[in-house]
Amino acid sequence: MMHSDADDVAAATAQDDETLKFYTSEAPVYTASGKAGVSTHLAAFLKRLPRGAKILELGCGGGRDAEAMMAAGFEFEPTDGTPEIAARAEERLRHPVRIMRFDELEADQAYDAVWANASLLHVPRKALPGILTRVRNALKPGGYHFASYKGGGQEGRDVFGRYYNYLSREDLVDSYSRSGDWETVSIVEYLGGGYQTKVQGPWIAITARRPD
Question: Taking the CB of residue 173, how many other CB atoms lie within 10 A of it?
Answer without folding.
Answer: 15
